[in-house]
Amino acid sequence: MILGTLSSSAGSFSELRRGLAPITDSVLSDRLNELVEAGLVSRCVSDGRPPGVRYALTDAGAAIVPVLDQLARWATDHLPPTPGDGC
Fold first, then answer.
1. Which residue intervals define the domain HTH hxlR-type in the entry (predicted)?
2. Out of 26, 31, 76, 85, which could bridge 80 as a Cys pair, Cβ 3.0 to 4.6 Å?
3. Domains contained in the chain, number
4. CATH code at 20?
């Protein structure tokens, strides 16, 4: 969901938090750190007052978004809407 949110534009932590509710701050922070370490997201700190942090997709992150979109379409077409529906 974070990669999908960043696919439309870069964002600050608070912008991502609002767009991904109901995720907690600590979980979002952990996931962003993992995505940065994996090279899918970049973390840019501005020199302004107060300093700001923006997150954006790297080239590798942007390249994986279409794959994730296809996976989401497959899940919609082939998985039941809720657990326990059917056999």
1. 1-83
2. 85
3. 1
4. 1.10.10.10
